Every structure is written in structure tokens, then in C-alpha cells.
Amino acid sequence: MARTDPEAAATCAGLVRIYPTATGETHALRGVDAEFDRHSLTALTGPSGSGKSTLLALLALRDRPSGGEVAVLGRPTSTMGPADRRRLSRRSIAWVPQRPTDGVFAHLTARQNLEQSARWRGGTDAEGVDLLGRLGLGDRASVLAARLSGGEQQRLAVACACVGTPTLVLCDEPTAELDEETAALVLGELRRTAEAGSAVVVATHDPDAVAASDRVVALRHGVVSTERRAGAEARATIDPTGRVQLPPEALLLFPDRRATLRLEGGRVVLEPPEDAS
Q: Is residue 206 part of a domain?
């Protein structure tokens, strides 16, 4: 189990998500333990299908886990009723979906989108105006969101997420459809929001987003495989049964998925068996 820190923005403990399919069940998450601290920017990485979007949806309270718990500011969410979940989500959690059109109110102008988000979280209209300017949308404030380009809608969704410094800012591939210059604006704003006190979590394949992060959490097959903080070595995770997730480059050393194990001077040494083919 992950430690429960009341100062953490969000904590996942033993998180499992199973989806029924026509052919059986899909295990999107298989017991994720993770913590996301305020004043931090975390990149969620991993191949498509590794569970990144599922984890974001659970943290955003847009889905419910099949097992385990999500806690926000130390409050377990599994026992909350719909009204409490809605209130917590609106006031404390910001969500930037992968599709730009899903992240804005199409019938409102860019400025009105910011004003609505600010009202929910206690931000100010002036803060919204500043956000639009920093994200290169200052001259688009009076334009309906439906008439903005996809890239502009994506930047507007990020602006709406950052206004009011919510507890959690959750972004699914926020730079995927942006050019290098506008992607840098978005990453800069997410960094600024983290420094202001939010826990920012970004699911991404973008190496620039990874480089801008304080911590990288890599998912594989629905579990956390490694965790790395800026300037530190990657750490493999060990689940409660003692299973270790090896990173893909280390897994190549064990083509038969077998290893010899020995304790040596306080270290655990894993090596391919001598008779491995």
C-alpha cells in the first residue's frame, strides 16, 4: 500500500480497474499505488494501453475503480455520494481531456470559459485574462470556443484547468496536437501552476513534457513499472507480494522470463540462468 500523506493532493492505493468486453474482461489497472504531491509536475508515461488515461479518469473522479481507493487531500472518495464527488471535482480537480472539444464549453467565448472555471474555484477574472495572454490567446478572448482551432481549444482547456490553482490538474496528452512553440507555452503554464501549489499530472508521450517534469511514473500492463525523480535514478516498484516490475531494457536480459536470485552484501542480484537459451 502507498503511504497516506494528508499533505498529498491525491493518493492511489491498490487501484484496480476492470472493464467487461465481448470476449471477457480487460484489466486496465492491476493494483496501482501512487502519490501525487502539491507543488509538483508528474509525467505519466508508458505505451498505449498501459493504463495512463484510465488512471487520470479515476483521479478526476470521472470513473470509479473496481478495487482500491483514490483519496483527495486525505479524503477517501469511494464512500462519497454523487453530490460530494461533484462538489469536490468542481472545486478542486481540473481535467484536460485528450480531445480539445471535450475540454471547453463550445457555446461560450474563451473569456466566458475562463470566468466559469474561476467561479467554480475561487479564481479571478483578471487571473483568467492573464492566462489567456500567456497562452497566446489574448486576441481570441471574445471568440466562441466552437470557432477556435483545435490547438487554440487545447490551450483554452489548459487555461481553464489552471485558473484558481486547483488541488489537482490532470492532463491527457496536452501537447500532442501542438507545434513546438505552443507546446512550450502549455508546459510553461503547467509548470507555473505546479509551483503555485497544484499537483499537476500529465499523461504524455512527449519527451519535452517528460523533461519538464519533477517526477516520471512509468506504467506498463496496468501497473507502475518504474518511478524516477529529476536528477535521480529510476526506481523499480515492488508490489505487496514481492513482485518487481523490471523496465523494458532490463527485461531483454531475461528472454525466458526466469532469473537466478542471490543476496550479496545487502544487495539483491538478479541474473539470467546459466542454462538460459
A: yes
List the grid coordinates of 196: 503555485
Q: Which cell numbers in the block locate residue 268?
A: 539483491
Measure the CA–CA gap between 197 and 182, rounded to whole angstroms. 23
Would residue 1 count as lying in a domain? no
C-alpha distance from residue 191 to each of 33, 88, 162, 194 (Å): 24, 23, 10, 5
Span 10-41, pLDDT tens digits: 999 999 999 998 888 999 999 999 999 999 99
End-to-end CA distance of the chain: 37
Indicate if the pLDDT at residue 69 is higher than 60: yes
Can you tell me the mean pLDDT for 81-94?
A: 94
Domain that holds residue 30: 8-242
Nearest to 253 by CA among 235, 268, 272: 272
Number of domains in the chain: 2
Residue 200 has pLDDT above 60, yes or no: yes
Helix %, strand %, coil % of the chain (to 5): 30, 30, 35
251 lies in the same domain as 237: no
